[in-house]
Write a structure and sequence with these properties.
single chain; alpha/beta; Aminopeptidase; globular
């Protein structure tokens, strides 16, 4: 099995959301670091996707879709983090509503996150249909796909907890991917 680790907001000029508090970082910068940490401990064949040479969201996803096919990727996780009010909290995992493989991968990620971060709110796995946030990526790419939202960057407490031990979150991803790959 070959896994794609895709950094959300990798199109030209897009940084995504920003964290809050003393150490402000963009979603793209944080997740670009995160995929390298995951790759360092991941014992499953994988590829990293962190630059989509397109200016539009659709163009970026179309580029990623082509690359995933060229590289014969079986499943892809696009890494993000949520942003909303300062009190919003928790982790959630998005998948295309008819994808059994997407549901399984999302569940595996959620389960590992719940075990590793029992103090965090689990917002669960969330099926996505047409015109919902993230739906184009989840529908467009051929392999199984999940959008990872493991914390709220707008919540200073959650951000501090994640940032103070990024290896802990990288381990969540690596263990979940290994469990998913082993079936």
């Amino acid at each position: 099995m070959k896994i794609g680790l895709a950094v959300g907001h990798s199109r030209l000029g897009d940084q995504g959301a920003y964290t809050t508090g003393d150490y402000v970082l963009s979603e793209w910068d944080f997740n670009r670091d995160m995929v390298r940490r995951i790759a360092h401990v991941l014992n499953v064949d994988h590829r990293i996707y962190d630059t989509y040479p397109a200016k539009s969201y659709t163009g970026g996803i179309n580029y990623l879709s082509r690359k995933l096919i060229e590289d014969d990727i079986d499943a892809v996780i696009e890494l993000h983090f949520n942003s909303a009010s300062p009190s919003a909290k928790g982790h959630e995992w998005l998948y295309w509503h008819t994808s059994k493989g997407g549901e399984k991968l999302a569940s595996t990620l959620r389960d590992e996150m719940e075990q590793s971060y029992p103090e965090m709110v689990s917002r669960g796995i969330k099926p996505r249909g047409p015109k919902q946030r993230g739906s184009y990526l989840l529908r467009k790419v051929r392999p199984v796909a999940v959008i990872a939202e493991p914390f709220f960057g707008s919540n200073e407490e959650e951000w501090r907890m994640i940032n103070n031990n990024r290896g802990r979150l990288a381990g969540v991803y690596a263990r979940a991917i290994k469990n998913y790959a082993e079936g």
